[in-house]
Amino acid sequence: MASKTQGAATGGVQLSATANQFVDKIVPFSKRGTSRRRRIVNSSRYHPENEPELTQLALIKDTPPAEQTALVVQELNQLNQCQRIFDFYDPVAQLKSKEMAALNELIDEITNAKESDIDEILHFLTQDFLYNEPLNRSLRLPWHEASFFMREITQASVSSGHSAIIRNDAGEIIAIGLNSVKSVKSVENEAAPSNEKTPGQMDYIANFLWQLDRKLAENLPKDVDTVMKVEIMSVSSAWTRRGLAGKLMDFTIERQKRLKIPIFTECSALASQKLFAKYNFTLLFEICHVNYLDLNGRRIFNCDDGTDRGQLVLKMP
Predict the structure, then answer these.
(1) Could you give the CA distance from residue 207 to residue 201 in angstroms, rounded to a whole number?
(2) Is the dihedral of CA 305, 246, 26, 93 positive or negative?
(3) Closest by Cα among 102, 115, 120, 94 to 175
(4) pTM over 0.85
(5) Fold for domain 108-315?
(6) The pLDDT value given to residue 31
(7) Which of 65-69, 104-108, 167-171 has the highest mean pLDDT?
């Protein structure tokens, strides 16, 4: 269930208190350089209080010949007053740039997920993904229903050796990319998640993803027997819009190139659908939420972020 979750933390760009404190330390201009920049900025700004008020001059055709020379001189003086070279250096924009640089320095490099990371990954899923992934949020999925499903996916993905995590400078996981490697037959023969008459919230989600996966085998060349699957790709809602999903995608595609196998996923969120399309994944199949109904004929998913369908996408090596 690839889902690049979106949060409300980056509109402006809003920064954490830690990042704001760090900004003061990353403007290492020398005293001379700072004063020079200040002189340049001050001299290139237009200061109207230092200029005389412009007055409308008479038309040259209405001016006696003896006074036309003086009128031309006045017009040239006014023209010179209007000519200014402006420096479009924006101190506010520069500060934002420094703040973003500070945030990037707060992020450690992407690393392989290890068995010792599993509990931390599950903690990340319970604190962020569980509440921000659109399908989960739509159904208000409780952890006691999701825990077995999430643990099973996490363990299988980490053991495959092709999953990734990103931590901040405090050592906390802020983004994960869980990838598994499996046979096409295992995907094709996977049993339906639930046949219960009263399915739970997790059953609705698992069945929805299963319905998408059923279309994989028929869209693959007959000689393909192994595939990589992006199980979960998620960025903390406090760290969105900072290129972390792109880092995870680059990691995943590099692994795909190394293995030389197709890679697929179910895109359950609008954000992930856009991300995978950007990386040239091919749309194989989709299910619109309006067509996915419960036993009483009612629509199951009503997402609040614009997500209105799930997609099965594929990228060949």
Answers:
(1) 10
(2) negative
(3) 120
(4) no
(5) Aminopeptidase (3.40.630)
(6) 44
(7) 167-171
Render pLDDT for 55-88 as a digit per residue (tens, 0 to 9): 777 877 777 877 778 877 777 777 766 665 555 5
Neighbour tally for 208: CB within 10 Å: 20
Handedness of CA 57, 60, 65, 70 (dihedral sign): positive
pLDDT-wise least confident of 21-35, 114-128, 243-257: 21-35
Give the type of residue at 142.
P
Structure tokens at 50: 């230092």
So where are the chain's domains?
108-315
Residues listed for the chain: 317
